[in-house]
Amino acid sequence: MNTNYAGFWLRLVAIIIDGIIIGVAQSFIFVPILAALGLGFANSVETMDISDPDQAAGIMASVMAMMGGYWILSLTIQVLYSTLMESSKLQATVGKLALGLKVTDLQGNKLDFTKALIRNLCKIISNFTLLIGYIMAGFTEKKQALHDMIASTLVLKKASLSNFTLQRVPLGTLFYLKKATALGFILIAAGKNPTNSPSASIATGCSEVISILSVVL
């Protein structure tokens, strides 16, 4: 059996890559939905008397319901993405594929859908430990995170690190992912002030994106 375990840093990079992919996908799903809900909510608030405790409570309940719905849908997308990819013949998400990693059971076999689902649902527990559950992958004997230990799974390297090249994922794919992410940020920023003209809104969005990138990069 392959015992070339993938450590914390490789897995962190894979998480970042998957985060970009999921973020882009979610932006195309959530931006139109949130825009429609936000406009409807704004119109209803204009007719309400927020000094009325009952109406104020209704507004708060609506906001909490929207936030809860967003969290549940976002979690569902992330869990299904990872579960379907890791239980497929690929045995890995796109981020793990890019780094030459795969997810297996303790015997090195492919996960079935149920086991992959359990593994990804257990990530909720790792999140609630202030991410310590993820950091455990850098210190445990088999480089297992907390959710790996609960689900009895491993993350293995398909090849030694010396043979690793980034050519597993075409650079063009990463380029277009970056473009799509930037576009998503621009659309979100532009939608903050719907009273502006389209060109002014996009210009504002571009300006905000440039400001963000100047801090991050």
Features:
9 helices; mainly alpha; 2 domains; 217 residues; elongated
Question: Outline of this structure?
Answer:
This protein has 217 residues and is mostly helical.
Low-confidence stretches: 160-169, 212-217
- Silhouette: elongated
Sequence of secondary-structure elements: HHHEHHHHEHH
Number of strands: 2
N- to C-terminal separation?
41 Å
Which strand order does the major sheet show? 1-2
Measured by DSSP, the beta-strand proportion falls in under 5%
Mean pLDDT: 78
- Specify the helix fraction band: 55-70%
| Overall structural domain count | 2
Give a quick account of the main beta sheet: strands, pairing sense, barrel closure: 2 strands, antiparallel
Structural class assignment: mainly alpha
> Total number of helical segments?
9
What would you report as the Rg, rounded to the nearest angstrom? 21 Å
Description of the structure:
Residues 160-169 and 212-217 have low confidence and may be disordered. The protein has 2 domains: 8-165, no CATH class; 170-217, no CATH class. The longest helix is centred in the N-terminal third of the chain and has 39 residues, at 8-46. Helix 1 runs parallel beside helix 8, helix 2 crosses helix 4 and helix 8 packs across helix 9 (198-216). It is built from 9 helices and 2 strands; from the N terminus they run αααβααααβαα. It has a two-stranded antiparallel ribbon with strand order 1-2. The chain has helices spanning 8-46, 53-86, 94-98, 113-121, 123-128, 132-135, 146-151, 171-190, 198-216, and strands at 101-105, 153-157. It is mostly helical and 217 residues long. The chain is elongated.
